[in-house]
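Residues pack. Consider this:
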Amino acid sequence: MPNKYGVRIYALPDSDVILIKQTVKRPESLRYIVDSLEDGTHREAHINVDDTVGIADAVRQALRGELGVRLIRIIVKEGLNMKIKWLGHASFMITSDTGTKLITDPYEPNKELTYGEINESADIVTVSHDHFDHSNVAAVRGNPKVVKGAVIVEIKGIAIKGTPSYHDDADGKKRGGNIIFCFEVDGIRVCHLGDLGHLLSDKQVAEVGTVDILLIPVGGYFTINGRIATQVCNQLKPKVIIPMHWNYKWSFSEIASVDEFLRGKRDVSQLDASEVEFKEGELPASTQIIVLKSAL
């Protein structure tokens, strides 16, 4: 009897390329999930595949009939991981295993904030608040969807939730509001705290929920400092902590380095890299801190 295969198939945005990701062998059929190039919706179906037909031919036939998608080529991928790259300041690029890219809080460089210009393309941009160093949406290429405010939305397979908070410890009277954004990417929950200025309330902790990877400001002055950041980490109990918004390429002497936050902590990895990869089910059992170099 011919062998059967189970694969997951993704249509890349604005492309005729279909990604096929090997999952598990199935005894009877091939299950696929497709993002339609026309309307972005998800489609599911089953295809019978055997060695005499081949995966690629069976998928072409099924998709041509159901979605009218013209396939130029099919790329087979296995074991793709979600990636997080620190561009600098509070800006990260999160890339899903299908290539969807999300950029947080794009900054505008100046003589004091000396990170390089952001020239990346993205599908989604989130803005925690409208200060110049967090809201330079125009710098991001690719006509991304911009997400602001306390919303709950799903875009290209990434679930996004915004939770209101403050940029200071005076209910926003000093610096205004701030949105905490939580993303679910490839089964991993990532939380970006923006310019958080205070400990979280019980309500905010509940709204944020489970956090696998926490992107947290630690430099103080404009945000929480290392001491309070440590307490926020204890509130949210993430598996991975990535510090941001510290004095890396910033001439403000008031902003602390990452050392204050790291002092006395165990399981710290200071990487000579700007990007790290994660996979669902393979996160550390105990909390690990990862310090990245800025990409820009």
In short: The first helix runs from residue 55 to 66.
